[in-house]
Amino acid sequence: MKKVFVESTSICRNNLLESQWYKDFFVENSWELTEDVQSADFILLNTCSFHGVHERICFRRIEEIKRVKKADAKFVVCGCLPGMNPKGLMNVFDGVSFGPQEVHKLDELVNASKSISKVAFPNTFCAEERLKFVHLPPELSAKTIKIAVRALIRREYYWLYNLLFYVLFGTPTYILYGDHTIKVEDGCLGSCSYCSIPKARGTLRSRPSGEIKKELESLVKNGVRRIGLWGDDVGAYGLDDDSDVCSLLEELNEVEGDFDLMLYNFNPNWYSLYQTRLKKIISRGRIKAIHLPVQSGSDSVLRRMSRPYKATEIKKQILELRGKFSNLRLSTNIIVGFPGETEEEFNETMKFISEARFNEIVHLLSYSSQTDTSAASMPNQIPEKIKKNRADTLSKKLIIQLFKNKL
After folding, report:
1. Average pLDDT value for residue range 19-37
2. In the Cβ-directed half-sphere of 185, how many Cα atoms lie within 13 Å?
3. Which segments of 193-338 are extended strands (E)?
4. Structure pTM?
5. How far apart are the C-alpha atoms of 55 and 196, rounded to whole Å?
6. Which of 17, 114, 296, 313 sits a CA distance of 20 to 30 A from 154?
């Protein structure tokens, strides 16, 4: 029996669910799964291109696999990297690759008797199980005093913040809450100037609410208590099918049992649109956490990012939410060093973080240019040294905030 090695380079839930799907596909086509890349006859590396850090991880892993694989092994790269940065991929890899919207290519590559389209997609995610087959480099996964001390000595507060979170909670900052996750939609309705994810993953495609409800009922019946609702643009759920996310949440609230819901990737513009209905739903006690990726605390930066809201308005809404539901956990994403970001604009973001009082983690990234986005060609690109300094400065604030919130 031929052996196949499938690996994720990211803990993105889309990436992990698709890797599991690929594994199921190979098993149903009579392949044997292996965790030893050197013994594999077929190697499928599922990549991530969310940020330059993730791309560098992918490039390095590709080079590693090329060195150790069998001479006659078929090596294929999939995931978001082929579509989001094809030129970068070509610099390190000249083999077959495909993106999330081209999975049908697998049928031809292995002469499949059962098409990938006929294999059920695993729309629920168990963190403990899925993370077993993720390749994480030491700088992202190590939980060691040595690395923390080195980060402190070098004043690399960005890494120190991530490591402290890992030590305190046993998980990197970019793993959000929830023991299990249900995928409710794929794709995005946004057109952010810095992001090419819609190019790789496509526009919004919502799953039927009835399917989602059945999966929730099954998880609750099996004793799962903390369940996250996942997607690229969760707040846009249903807008492609004459429905909306509030209708979904109201339907899920009908499920009987003891469980909590967490909402991922709920863009602030959707919260603003639905806030009255959402507050009524939150008041029922099921929703325990919401991830609101604000991205910047500066209105002028948000305009350049093509984010359809103002930081001042979102801050007011967040404070109202915190005031009404003190136990609700709120987290966000922040990008520093966006093209043209001035010291004044950066300070506006620093002030926003202080005043918005997020009581959960802040996912901090320095801006990384993505191919074929309008932000990549904007004037006044910020030098790496300044981006690093700003990330470190904000990280110091977040470290203090982290201890205030959790210790």
Report:
1. 96
2. 29
3. 205-206, 226-230, 260-263, 287-291, 329-336
4. 0.85
5. 13
6. 296
